[in-house]
């Protein structure tokens, strides 16, 4: 069990208790949004109740087995020279990200490729893996899936991918019953690399608003509360915080606001500094 899971409750952040529970099947029916625009916001956890105040009629919260907060563990794979990190840092219009994601509470594992297109649209493709599949390296199956996914976008597949970082966090998913948007609320984020770890401060949450259109109801409310979109990537922020030699200036301001100083790690030794 990852370190960040120890002693953590199964409930989500305060302020979401009044939203009606919805199943994963209903969320996928109403707002799967695999191809979408995704905008991120960092905000104090104490603002979550105000953000969703009065939203009972229009929003629901994912519940599985009585839980509304779920532990995710993502192992990011990158080239030896960290090409996907640098493509993101430089803001390349066509880029991708590769990870193995484990949904710890539901016992599900996915190999995922996130593709960023020229118009800023994110397209996520994935394939389910058995829980005993390796998370830190490609197999013949995931190599074939990666090559086909990138080739469809006219991107050259990398020759080698190595484990670069691990991120653990808890996620609560809120969905607009209209299908307009899906909002993920992430907290307890921990990044690991090369025997070190960095944690998001407990008074901060990361919101990701996924939609196919312009500003959503939630985003307009965020703006009313004085919260603006943040440049933030869990993988890139963790990597930049744990590797001082890397130029992570694209996320420097946001990372400084929400991340603690790196400390020796108590878990996840597989993502090495040479990868």
From TrEMBL:
Protein's GO biological process: polyphosphate biosynthetic process
- What InterPro entries does the annotation carry? CYTH-like_dom_sf, VTC_domain, VTC_sf
- VTC domain: residues covered: 36-242
How is this protein named in the record?
VTC domain-containing protein
Q: Which organism is it from?
A: Nocardiopsis metallicus
